[in-house]
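Researcher: Structure prediction, please.
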Amino acid sequence: MNRHLHVVPVPVSREPVSLRSVERALADLRRGRPVAVSGGGGAAALVLAAEACTQESLRDLREVAEADPTLVLTARRASVVGLASIGLRAVIVAFEGLPAAETVHALADPLSLPPEKSVAIGEISEAAAFSCEAAAVLLAKTARLLPAAMVAAIRDPDADDVAKWASRHGLLWVDAGDVFQYDFIAARTLKPVSEARVPLLGAENAKIIAFRPLDGGLEHLAVIIGDPQPPEPVLTRLHSECFTGDLLGSLRCDCGDQLRGAIREISEAGGGLLLYLAQEGRGIGLVNKLRAYELQDRGFDTLEANEQLGFDADERVYVPAAQMLRQLGFARVRLLTNNPAKVDGLARCGITIDERVQHAVPSNRHNEIYMRTKAGRGGHLL
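Model: Predicted structure follows.
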């Protein structure tokens, strides 16, 4: 299932501030640092990535916020560990006292060893939409960490102005609204920053244009093969980056074969576009994809492995692809894919899909189960 964006419009003049505050928060979370988050109705909380927490950082979180931290999981991960049903939004898990870091890791990470000592679990509740808790999980996802966070409501009486309070404590502050609209704003601010002619194997007449968002985040690439001209529908392949398949030639997936096959097909058809999107592992990132591989070795299929980690089966978004197409002058495409969800996702972003063009590659003995899973559970039309 595609990740849904909850967009709250903001003035264009605020976009740089919004992007910068989220990017800085993501960097601190990845370093194991807490960040302050302000939500609606005056709510505010300290947020710490669950996978990065230590016993010392949990004690510091409680001391600075002056409140016991809770663990926030995606509903999918909470369902996997038997704490809640899948129909909920993010799930808040309270503890009776300060939990051991090992307990947090065991609840958040399916590859973590069970804790030797655990703290009893208290109340379990659903996180409100657009709350600090929901923002905390989305921050962890966006940082390409496990989608789980420790969250402590800020009870310090001197925290009337949360931004200034965070600054006094040497912490970064971010507004929850900026977190929820981050993907949309980053995509909307994509601009071409460089281009060059790059002859490719199977398509010597090719050019690559790099698109970068306003915050200097991850670049997406447009590979233009031949000389396609709008307004005619352009043969287009959306390809999510795959380090292991595209670069190393991994046999666990069909990504490398799809990439090279698409370049060849577009060239043979007379030209078109390949959009190379920075969305490794169906949007979960390389580290989490490697975790999913280990879970697959334990018997889970490719979609189940993502779900065990707490992600949806597919976390990709197609707003960047739509923005790149529009900037290149194309509003209509013939989409080279076997994935109907990709057709629907791009269409929801305002691009007209004139035709779905089949794109099949052969399987091998290492990815046969993976291919069957994509067809049987993922709806791919192989």
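Model: The first helix runs from residue 15 to 30.
Researcher: Thanks, that helps.
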